[in-house]
Give the backbone structure.
Amino acid sequence: MANTAKNKIKTIAELSAITAKARREGQVVVHCHGVFDLMHPGHIKHLEAAAAEGDLLVVTLTPDRFVNKGPGRPVFNQHLRAESIAALEAVSYVAVNEWPTAVETLEAIKPSVYVKGSDYAAPEKDITGGIAKEREAVEKAGGRLHFTDEVTFSSTQLLNRFFSAFPDATKTFLEGFRKRHSAESVISSIQKLSGMRVLVLGDAIIDEYHYCKGLAKPPKDNIICAKFMSEERFAGGALACANHLAGFCRNVTLATCLGTADSKEDFISERLRPNITPVFFKRNDTCTPVKRRFVDPVFMTKLFEVAYLDDFELPERTAKTVAEYLERHLKDFDLVLVSDFGHGFLNRKLIRLAAENSRFMAVNAQTNSANAGYNLVTKYPSADYICIDEPEARLAAHDRYGDMRDIVTHLGKQLGSKKISITRGHLGALTWDGKTFTETPTFNGSIVDRVGAGDSYLSTTAPLAAAGAGMDVIGFVGNATAAIKLGIVCNRAPVEPVQLFKFITTLLK
């Protein structure tokens, strides 16, 4: 039977058997791996050069779920990509990978030659660190790594130019941003944050999602009726901020308060990253806050929420213990990130201590259903960096319809802050450095869940602000982070540095 494009496509297990047979027959097996999102002349030349290194060329593709190039990628699904590669005469077989990287595949296929493009020849430029692990896997099986030196094109550049899902305003913004900043410079500024010592100070929250399927209306009552399906619990609030931060900064301390009635301490400790040092204060008059949301899992629609919390101020003894800790340790940190959900942890004395003794203080004072109108950023004089959303800014300025630039200028002067980010949902972000405003559009693809997007924006931009980054870079990185976070259910996982770096590279090619 002719080796048509369709029957060239195999599973990894089938490919392993084929290459094992080829090796026994003395054939030289060559292997290429990649995303191959848009087939172009550079891919063809690369694969033809790879085929010349042996007798049998097999190509494996990164599956859709592991393509970390940001929202909207890959443009072409794994089946179309596999068919496109299989149609090339130089290619003997194609398979869609089963893992995030090629390491496990290399161990299964055991090629004599593993071929990569010349852009991977300098391992120090590989932000994932994957090429070193792939080299190790190839050489362990007795093979060698080979780099082609053919004419190169960029799928990402071509897709950004001809297949971009972004509106014209976003394309125009990115064109201008590329002239001022390269992907390498932005990524480098983030990587330099690794040595920063950070204290996250704020409310611990347990987010619960109870997934339900809606049923018919009960015949006797006008109520929502739903069938329970499953549940998930997440570390939210300041816990989520600490987890995001800990991917970018090696030294993160989390100071928060748990209720002794139902502390959830074991659950929380298990879900904090290993490089987070938790400092748990205890109050014996309540439980640790829990927000239980009932969710339709098909479209992640929230049906209703039940909150378990008492948001009275800390008991005097607990507040004194927290104050003593802050007096001793605030100067130990380069950045104090305040994540204030208004659930009773941070009273005015503690806020004043943080404001007066922090080297650099970044603040988000969140307005939510439990504290609307009572937890405003105006509680924080002398904050070095303020990061709030537009409704919170309007509440703080008592200005419902005014121009946002006037509101930001007013808040900056009132609070003595010269670095402000205002997140504006589908309108993107507005940043201000005391003189200049920058508007950054959204980079969102499909939105899975909005919960926690603002926390992710805060967590990556606060250390950049403390390090002196420009507000245009802060808005860009914050919106890129939020775009990734919008594809994650609640706080199921933090935004990882490699995810962010790949997306930045995609946006700026």
Remarks:
- The domain at 186-508 is CATH 3.40.1190.20 (UDP-N-acetylmuramoyl-L-alanine:D-glutamate ligase).
- The first helix runs from residue 5 to 8.
